[in-house]
Amino acid sequence: MASNQIVKLLGVLFLVIGIAYFSGAFEEAPSTMDLPVVKVDIAAVNRIEIISPLHTIVTEKTASAWQMTQPVQWPADTLAISTFLDQLTELRLKSVVAISPDRYERYGVDSSAYVIRLTEGNVEHEITMSPNGPEFSTVYIRIGGDERVFTASPRLSIPYAVALWRDKRILSLAPVSVLSATVSTPDELYTVLRTSSGKGWVIRQSGSNTPSDSVAVSRWLTRFMSLKVDGFLDEDTEYADPTHFIEFQLVDGTSLRLDATREETRFVLTKGPGDDTIYYFIASRAEPLFPSSETLLKSE
């Protein structure tokens, strides 16, 4: 009788062990043995590749700056890249949670994961990262060809969206390079002209010139020294004809024009000549770019 009970208990025990084994319970026991170290010389990194289920983003370091080469050719946001690389230096592996590729889907390090490839000279580092982790501050990752799944912290803030990697600066226009600027809005049309002495400005409107407030004009033109948009729109975005424009005549004989369409909460912006990109500004940021002539006139 007692022996039958022992046999039954052993049967139950083996059944529980079997269920635990096939469910991966033994692999989930955290291990801190033999953890590799994520070591990247961020100063030597010259290529970053972010592969997601939606797209691949590639940025490369040139002699002067970072450049996005895929999916679009565009100057990269140096601050976003610097922040991302700095976070990598803080990444630490904490434990092993799985040792088998059979568990990759369970931890989100399969084809649904993000793959980060960093090129450092002739060395390539690869990190496969799940969007999730056991805690808010941790994440599941794989390192290179290592089949193990690790927990790591802190959770990286990777700029997954293409727009987050693109430099939003579209204009670097020094006020001293401007000879004139013509502004058109639904309310008025006027031109700000540098005086013959080069030390002041007048406003031409309806055929007559009026002295301007040179400080106010300089303050306005300074907005274009490092003009950053709020984002980018798809090239097939539909929008109405421009409601506003500014056309700059520069001392080197060239011209530059900004056309903007006022929508409910934003301005859709294009820049010419030779730029087919469609940008947008939040309305409150764009409106000061098209000031009323009254705000630039010299007060009595």
Question: Top keywords for this entry?
Answer:
6 helices, alpha+beta, 9-stranded antiparallel beta sheet, 18% helix, 300 residues
How many extended strands? 20
Q: Which structural class do you get from the secondary structure elements?
A: alpha+beta
Helical amount among residues, as a percent range? Answer: 10-25%
Identify the strand order in the major beta sheet: 4-3-2-1-6-7-8-9-5
Strand content: 35-45%
How do the strands and helices of this protein lay out in sequence?
Blueprint: H1 2-22, E1 45-51, E2 56-61, E3 66-70, E4 74-75, H2 78-89, E5 92-98, H3 104-107, E6 114-120, E7 123-129, E8 139-143, E9 149-153, H4 162-165, E10 169-171, E11 178-184, E12 189-194, E13 201-205, E14 208-211, H5 214-222, E15 227-228, E16 231-233, E17 244-250, E18 255-262, E19 266-272, E20 278-282, H6 283-286
Antiparallel strand pairs: 1-2, 1-6, 2-3, 3-4, 5-9, 6-7, 7-8, 8-9, 10-15, 11-12, 11-17, 12-13, 13-14, 16-20, 17-18, 18-19, 19-20
Please give a structural write-up.
The chain is of the alpha+beta class and 300 residues long. The chain has six helices and 20 strands. The strands form three sheets. The chain has a nine-stranded antiparallel beta sheet with strand order 4-3-2-1-6-7-8-9-5, covered by helices on one side. Strands 14-13-12-11-17-18-19-20-16 form a nine-stranded antiparallel beta sheet. Strands 10-15 form a two-stranded antiparallel sheet. A hairpin with a 3-residue loop joins strand 3 and strand 4 (74-75). The longest helix is centred in the N-terminal third of the chain and has 21 residues, at 2-22. The termini are far apart. Residues 9-30 have low confidence and may be disordered.
